[in-house]
Amino acid sequence: MRIDAHQHFWRIDRGDYGWLTPEDHPKIARDFLTPQLEPLLKAAKIDRTILVQAAPSEAETHFLLDLARDTPFVAAVVGWIDFEAADAPTRIARLCANRKLMGLRPMLQDIGEEEWILRPEFARVFDAMQRGKLRFDALVKPRHLPAIAELLDRYPDLALVIDHGAKPDIAKDGLEVWKPYIRHIAKETNAYCKLSGLAGEAGPGWTADTLKPYVDVLLEAFGPERLMWGSDWPVLNETGDYAAWLGACVTLTAQLSPSDREAIFGTTAARFYGVET
Predict the structure, then answer these.
(1) Tens-digit pLDDT profile for residues 223-235
(2) Sheet of 3-7: strands edge to edge?
(3) Verdict on whether the full-model pTM lies above 0.90
(4) Domains of the chain, first to last
(5) Are 227 and 252 in contact (CB under 8 A)?
């Protein structure tokens, strides 16, 4: 089974994608739904996907769960809830009644307080997540990784995956700034990581050679058993396309054994998100 561990759907008229404006994102500020993705998956021979939130609203979480119900290739949904809500644990328990919900993702990259996720009052949220066997998608940049390491020190049994390799600043040659952060969290915690989003961080005109130093670090740090491939479609469309991104990642992992490649392109995500194979 081949799994795309990170894709999005959105319908603009829902009105809660505040970041997604025609001025800032002209290539993707329109609807992206099943009919646009399905042919790409078929061409790439991708069997299942993990559908990830893109708006900080519980309304979008319900929208995605409804789509997942009617879309056979969506294996799981990573949603959003308001961590600061007084009844957050109750909301989590209610959402967990839907078996397609497998994770939650606060949009940490957009929160100025780097240690926001370590607030003591969130203990009840993480307790509720662990009771519901939910995974935590960490949408972070390198500066957030010390807080994520502390979070996993507090909750060593929390299943956590770092989205987009923690978004290294590839366009500005940020390898040496990013590398110690990502190596530390890989060594000192049980975090997983997504091989996704790097094309966006590199900017237009990227090639496999552009990405190779970063992919090599992720392979060395996490290994195939904790690294999973994702497209980040349709955000990917700002700097590339589905086939080119997948092809680059296939090239950059060609030196691995068949079983290691199977892990990165499917079995690691299946194990992490509880996808039946």
Answers:
(1) 999 999 999 999 9
(2) 3-7, 48-52, 74-79, 101-104, 135-138, 160-162, 192-195, 227-229
(3) yes
(4) 3-273 (3.20.20.140)
(5) no
